[in-house]
Amino acid sequence: MTIQSNQWFLWFMLTVFLYIAMILIIPQDKIRRLVPFGFWFGFIMAIVITGFFQTLFNAFRLVGDPTVLGIPVFTPLAWVPPTIAFAVFFPHHKPWYYYPGYILIFITGAVAVQLGLEWFGMWQSIRWNPFLTALLASLPHSLMTIYLAAKKVTIH
Asked: 48, 51, 68, 140: least surrounded by Cβ within 10 Å?
């Protein structure tokens, strides 16, 4: 057996690693309160984005991530912990001009993750590049910022 034939295992391990990191870094009560946020802005958003850009537009391929109806299984699950982290560390008590920098940090993280996935052979760009990842990542992170700022959601 080769890594190529077991790419699904790398996706599984990535997902498990993200959940373990979340549990170790973020207090349990905050995780529980943010599960709905993680579900809508992480899990559902990942389904929509990968559905459009992988399945419909054939822009990239998440190699080895098992699919159901063309939607990857582990990718939406893996998006939940970083989404919850985004909400937990959101600069609620800072002036609005901190928000673009916060968004840029997570956009940079998204590009770094894409490059890492490419390096491990888990991502194949077809009509895609890291600049497009940065542009695309600005949308969900901006939406999360608007939601968190408008709701004045604070996590204590």
From this structure: 68
